[in-house]
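Good morning C.,

I know you're traveling, so I'll keep this short. The sequence:
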Amino acid sequence: MLGKGAILTVFGFILAFSMYQVRMSSNVLATSDNFNTQYMETLIHETAISAMNYAINKLWDQNVTNDSFYIHANECTSRVRIYPLNADTTKITVRTWGYLFDNESQSVVKREKTMSSFFTKGAGTSISEYFMFTNNSAGLFWVTGCTLWGPTHDNSVMHTLGKPVFYGKVTANKGINPDPASKKNKAEYHDGWEIGIDMSIPTDMTHLVNAATASNGGAPVNTKCIYNQVTSFEFLPNGDVVRQVGANPPDTVALATIAPGNVIYSTADVRIKGVLDGELTIYTTTNIWLDGDVRYKENPMTNPNSDDILGLVAKNKIIITDNAVNQTDIYVDACMVCIDGGFEAQNWNSRPVGVEYFLGSLAENISGCHGVANSSGTVIKGFEQRMRYDPRLWGGHFYPPNFVMTPNKFRLASWWE
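The tokens, ready to paste straight into the viewer:
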């Protein structure tokens, strides 16, 4: 009996271990199937996203609004469709699929993923929505102590050093240095950052010329909205302006009289200062000189309901004049655009140290110089800058009359998978 019992015991262990082995093999196969399934689904998802991004680039870079094509990648296939829903809305759909062997059914099964996105085209946005907008920052560094409150865009490479703080979204075309994703970049991006955004300052100011011409009413040049001589405007808080055209004696006129359409156009240099009560945009094909403080009658930082707004658009530069009243400090309230040049201080590398208080928005082709700093960052010539964003400009719904608009491009409205 002992021998038979031993044999039965051995057979029992063999049977038990055999069943255990079968179960382990089954678990291994199930685990392998799960891994293969998840791996294939990951490949399908990544391929679908890649196909969607490729289609988006065709829409943005090539303005393709009606197309259909296939993309093969990662052993997967994507069918992509780009088609217009109306003149201002385009939809992109992606259907991606791949195949794998299902052990349970002992057959090849198909897995697929779909995603869609909508892009809309609005009326464009005022460039004053951006606190700082530059085509070429030309070695400008945002450093510790710099605090930017509104959206910021650099069409070149944006450089940071130390711990600048950005409260609006930061976008750059050719990158941000150091890379914000690396530990080397210590800047604070409270509303995020994005690179690869190509958006230049518009150069066609025909709309401003037309607006000034329309409201000029056939008046002689240099009397109302259109000028071809160097002209100075000193704004008065009662809504009047002291105007001097060329070498003529100055006269005092109501701003509403000489700019009934709120736009002044000049083909010569324009010089301004004073306290503005009202809305006005000045465009010149040359330079604008700031001969003294340029302030709003109602400060929007203390009165959010202020409707005073000034747009300064220069084909070349906007310059802080090196004169007696600008030696210690200067206050500038304005939305400024320099199409070919930049915003700078005259004799920035030799004038005495002063403080520049700026409120508004600035778009410039090339960053202008305002002063010289030593190795520790202390300004030793020119201006220290204290720049604040006008909170009324946020969102692009409030801006100077007939102001410069960013290109009317498609923007992502929604995306779902």
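Safe travels,
E.
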